Amino acid sequence: MIIGTGIDMVEVDRMADKIAKDNGLREKIFSVDEIKFCSNQAKSGEHYAARFAAKEAFLKATGLGLTASFELRHIEIFHDDLGKPNMKLSGPFEKLANENHWQKIHVSLSHVKSMACAVVIIEG
Asked: Distance from the CA of 80 to the CA of which of 24, 35, 47, 89 falls in 20 to 30 A?
């Protein structure tokens, strides 16, 4: 059963500008592994923006939106061996998933030079 769906779009340059500042925002939004992955990509801004879009799409799919005042770094995007994006929850988001019996989270990412987008579907 589908619990919720979410979609979000992010401007790549805007995200790149925000995380370029040394104010801790990047570490608040992204996990250590996400930072390592994105920083090693030729077009790191596109990868950061796509991950941020996925986090926002996930919040929309939960029905909570930004009212869930948890740190976004607890929503982690990673790729399997074939390159398929997946989502791993930790901390308060993992607790929320367990309490609501979410069984599977599907995520799709896309990005080009100026825009990144993501779609998330939560199954229960």
From this structure: 24
